Amino acid sequence: MEYDVITVGHGLAGLVAAAELAEAGKKVLLLDQEPASNFGGQAWWSFGGLFLVDSPEQRRMGIKDSHDLAWQDWLGTAGFDRMNDEDEWGYQWAKAYVDFAAGEKREWLRSLGVRFFPVVGWAERGGSLADGHGNSVPRFHIVWGTGPGIVRPFAEKVRQGIHEGLVHYLPRHRVTEFITENGTVTGVRGEKLAADDRPRGEKTTREVERLFEARAGAVLMTSGGIGGNHELVRKNWPERLGTPPERMLSGVPAYVDGQLLGEAERAGGRLVNRDRMWHYTEGIQNYDPVWPNHGIRILPGPSPLWFDAEGQRFGAPNFPGFDTLSTLQAIGKSGYDYSWFVLTKKMIEKEFALSGSEQNPDLTGKSIRMILSRVLPGAPEPVEKFMKRGEDFVVARTLPELVDGMNDLVGEERIFLEEMERQIRARDREIDNKFAKDLQVMAIRSARASMGDKLVRVAPPHRILDPAAGPLIAVRLNIVSRKTLGGLQTNLSGQVLGADGKPVPGLYAAGEAAGFGGGGVHGYRSLEGTFLGGCLFSGRQAGRALGQG
Fold first, then answer.
1. What is the largest CA-CA distance in the chain?
2. How does residue 512 score in pLDDT terms, banded at 50, 70 and 90?
3. What is the pLDDT of residues 478-496, one digit of tens each?
4. How far apart are CA 101 and CA 533, in angstroms?
5. What is the CATH number of domain 3-150+163-223+485-548?
6. Of 544, 453, 533, whose CA–CA distance to 48 is shortest?
7. Where are the domains of the chain?
8. Handedness of CA 357, 363, 365, 366 (dihedral sign)
9. Opening angle at CA 547, ends 545 and 549, nearest 5
10. Could you tell me which of 441, 488, 483, 490 has the C-alpha nearest to residue 461?
11. pLDDT digits (tens, 9 = 90+) for 110-142
12. Is 519 left (phi over 0), alpha (psi -120 to 50) or beta?
């Protein structure tokens, strides 16, 4: 047989696995439906955040973290409730992943040349009890170089494998079927697509030139999730999250279509936790889109007030950056598919960042000079561009003008000035003391006790209607599709399991296609920084297991 392993997907999990296999001296066929310009997949577009536990970066900032605290947070967040069934292996992957994040993960990456921005971010802060959802401490470590920086070392290893003749890379080869013989997956069939030199991320042609077939000792599926296929997202949308949004932006390119998941099922694999998904609630339409319906996520600090489409303020834990799925549920049950931030210029200057490598040229380009400009007056340049050109922003000197602009934007009078003013003034009265009963105001003060938040992330508490903090800004927030939390159930070697709980011979999966491990390492919710990390860990696990075969 010409190949030891066929890896389907040239995203981060596929590259990590292929690198491990080449290092073990195995011959790998690496296939992907997209052109070589998309090498690295979705990870290239990411902000490059990684979940690490008790790191030197945390300790330098005075953050006291531990394996036990991280595991407590993971369990409180995941909410595993399908033990002995769909969650059986996700739970085991979660234990292994927290061990990895608290152990060798950082040094392994450093040995590959990966470095981290010194300020640790605090994502998914929770807002519940100590054993509930969320990170108790900041754990979001940004890779110096963002998404391209985490892709680079593995892409280089794979290219070295290509040079040495161990990796045969075929872009524009779309797998449509797994070949099964006597219950064993022995290869793949698919379509050789026409060449397409469009830039990274743009939708490419599906014109078929010819069919192809390839065989190997095993097939590793790393083809991603369903976030670019809104029809499939809505089909799997759980009732607990309310009505599926009529309008939804895409946080991933169109090729993230989930089509191969069904083929893996037909080959005998078990797809679990279909109803678990991770979509963001702070999406804005990209004024300069790369892929169809391209949405950008705002990474907010904790100060903006969050209102539903009719101008009613959300309560705890639905504050910016606290509990993504709780807020998604609240929006879904509001009867609308959008919501609003209302904030001041003083807040947006310090608290708004945009997710993605292309929206953070300073971190992506490793520019100290540009990084230092973040502490200067004014919003970061990418945010300023969206304020001026983005269709979802309203900027006004007074609250009446702001409310009129919000209603004009949606074409209907849904927000009423008197009620909006009442709620904002009630919040503003809570600013006069260093203590308060408003949980969001309390959370802002707590955040500023964290050095990183105080330095670069959280504006000093102030009245929203203080003219000196203006102008006022409203941002219409759309749902933006992103991650699939369920997937093919796998054991800790990445072997895909069947309905009987036994491995499907010859079939492996890693990355988002496997729910980042076990068919759902996150359970119901993510602690953030765990998607890239899940691709790294599951790709490494599968690659090393196959490399020993």
1. 74
2. very high
3. 999 999 999 999 999 999 9
4. 8
5. 3.50.50.60
6. 533
7. 3-150+163-223+485-548, 279-480
8. negative
9. 75
10. 441
11. 999 999 999 999 999 998 899 999 999 999 999
12. left
